[in-house]
Amino acid sequence: MSDGKDDPWRDEEFEQAVRETAYFLWEHDNRPAGREKEYWFRALERKLRERNADRNLREEPRHTGQIDDNQDDLGRDINAVH
């Protein structure tokens, strides 16, 4: 039986981060009994959001926040013929 270390679909570091976050959340809420899955799913959701946010920050910025004089407040080209 495999221990999962050769499984390309597993991310041991991510799983450890989820476990640590779940434990932190559980500790913060005074260790309520019988709610382990709830804390694990909350931690998983949080770590997935963080991972996606980190990935988005590494990608080339799509919007620099600079004002384009050729666009209205909704980002539409004001010079386009409608």
Describe the protein's architecture and organization:
This protein has 82 residues and is mainly α. The protein is 49% helix and 0% strand. The protein has helices at residues 12-28, 36-58. Helix 1 crosses helix 2. The longest helix is centred in the middle third of the chain and has 23 residues, at 36-58. The model has no long low-confidence stretch (mean pLDDT 83).
Q: What is the H/E order? A: HH
What's the story with the biggest beta sheet?
Answer: none
Q: Which structural class should the secondary elements be placed in?
A: mainly alpha
| Helical content band | 40-55%
- Kindly provide the radius of gyration, computed on alpha-carbon positions and rounded to a whole number of angstroms: 22 Å
- Binned strand content: under 5%
Mean pLDDT: 83
**What gross morphology would you assign?**
elongated
Enumerate the spans where pLDDT stays under 50 for 5 or more consecutive residues.
Answer: none
Distance between the termini: 65 Å
What characteristics describe this protein?
82 residues; mainly alpha
Summarize the structure.
Helix content is 49%, strand content 0%.
Topology:
Layout lengths: L11 H17 L7 H23 L24
Helix pairs in contact: 1-2
